[in-house]
Design goal:
Blueprint: H1 7-23, H2 39-51, H3 71-84, H4 93-105, H5 108-119, E1 125-128, E2 144-148, E3 151-158, E4 169-175, E5 186-192, E6 198-203, E7 212-223, E8 227-228, H6 234-249, H7 252-268, E9 270-271, E10 274-275, H8 280-308, H9 314-318, H10 320-338, H11 357-370, H12 375-386, H13 395-407, H14 410-413
Parallel strand pairs: 1-4
Antiparallel strand pairs: 2-3, 3-7, 4-5, 5-8, 6-7, 9-10
């Protein structure tokens, strides 16, 4: 098997390395977890776009670099930034989820208005999807909007809304057609988080920080043109965004970066008389993780190849979110074990490593296994759509069957 990329790609790799060597001092720290990117992160993002190392294939008219898709060039960029342990471009709900949704389904006016400032980190978005009674069953959402004087008037509540406190804008699912079937009465609205009638209440997690929020809407007025897709067809748009969300959460380049950081940590940390990486048990775990990260990297290349050929991602795409989120958590778990007794330190201890980033990731990534579709939901999707297994029985049907059995005479229950 020939794994060489070819001479022209060797030249491109040298160009990427030269850029990193010349500009890496301008990059923000890898442990920067701010919901709103720092000024240094924004300037780094703009520099990467200018040289084509992020937003590479997004048209220049919308603020991207405008290159033709090239799988191997994209792979080389990811490899070199991971090798140098230099952060790549920004990844958030606006850039990684909303922008590709607009590229697919937005109007020309929406693309020109929102993509460039979002790509450059000047506009931060949050996602208004989940509700107290609509999580895994998202189409059960109750947040509603009626029309009054050429405006949508929105009322309701969202929950688990990341970055709502810091966001400028929200893309939000609301029910605009109350008499339509539940999947058919939803619209996908976009509006400012400064709109009167919006209240944000932070939700603190076990990390000690409020990564999530509750958002309440009381007579929030939204101009009717601020809708992506047609009124009542938001479920189709919402699923496009969910597909991009799973891609973001399952980003193989992010896994590669974390793996390289883990290797560096294990080379530096000492357990007993030797380095953590020399411990045979920890080293075996590391090798297993390396193999899984490599598998996800090549799986990502397969998905991209299918996309460029206009073919569906199939099973390769279905496993990404489940496998990558669990793998990211396992990487953080090994890092904590490799630090020994220092692994339990958190909240600004003087011996804390990397500002507690490993501990924060370990806790936060548990939430990512749940968010964006729980691991159990992902397994159902893989089984039913990928393996074409029978659909899981609905709870209501199980309850009805159990009730029917309970109502039978006892002598007939055994044969039921």
């Amino acid at each position: 098997m020939d794994l060489e990329y070819g001479p022209e790609y060797d030249v491109f790799r040298k160009q990427v390395r030269a850029f990193i060597e010349a500009h890496s001092h301008l990059a923000p720290p890898s442990s920067d977890r701010a919901a709103r990117p720092s000024s240094k992160a924004v300037e780094w993002q703009k520099l990467l776009i200018e040289h084509g190392y992020t937003a590479r294939t997004i048209p220049q008219a919308y603020g991207g670099y405008g290159a033709e898709p090239d799988i191997l060039q994209s792979r080389i960029i990811a490899e070199e930034f991971a090798r140098a342990r230099v952060p790549g471009g920004l990844s958030n709900q606006g850039i990684s989820m909303f922008v590709p949704t607009l590229l697919e389904l937005g109007t020309e006016e929406q693309k020109r208005r929102w993509i460039e400032p979002t790509l450059k980190g000047d506009v931060v978005w949050c996602q208004g999807y989940s509700e107290p009674g609509a999580g895994s069953d998202l189409a059960n959402l109750k947040t509603s909007a009626h029309i009054e004087n050429d405006e949508f008037v929105v009322n309701g509540q969202k929950i688990w809304t990341s970055t709502a406190k810091q966001a400028d804008m929200i893309f939000c699912l609301v029910r605009t057609e109350p008499d339509a079937p539940k999947h058919g009465g939803i619209s996908y609205l976009i509006f400012s988080m400064d709109t009167p009638g919006i209240e944000v209440r932070p939700l603190k997690t076990m990390t000690g920080h409020a990564e999530f929020n509750e958002v309440f809407f009381t007579d929030v007025r939204v101009p009717m043109h601020q809708i992506v897709g047609q009124r009542g067809q938001g479920w189709f748009v919402a699923n496009a965004t969910l597909g991009h969300e799973r891609g973001m959460l399952g980003d193989p380049d992010a896994l590669e970066n974390r793996l390289q950081a883990l290797i560096a940590l294990m080379q530096e940390e000492r357990l007993g008389q030797g380095r953590a990486i020399d411990n045979p048990v920890l080293r075996d775990r590391l090798v297993a993780l390396q193999a899984e990260v490599a598998a996800m990297k090549y799986n990502g290349m397969r998905i991209l190849s299918n996309s460029l050929r206009g073919e569906p991602g199939g099973m390769a795409k279905l496993i990404v979110k489940l496998q990558s989120c669990e793998l990211a958590h396992q990487i953080s778990a090994l890092a904590i074990d490799a630090m020994g007794e220092l692994g339990i330190l958190y909240h600004h201890s003087p011996r804390e490593r990397e500002g507690g980033a490993w501990q924060w990731n370990y806790m936060f990534q548990l939430g990512l296994i749940i968010g964006g579709g729980t691991a159990q939901i992902q397994k159902n999707i893989i089984a039913e759509r990928g393996l074409e297994m029978p659909r899981e029985p609905k709870l209501a049907k199980i309850s009805d069957a159990a009730k029917a059995t309970a109502d039978m005479p006892r002598h007939k229950q055994g044969s039921a």
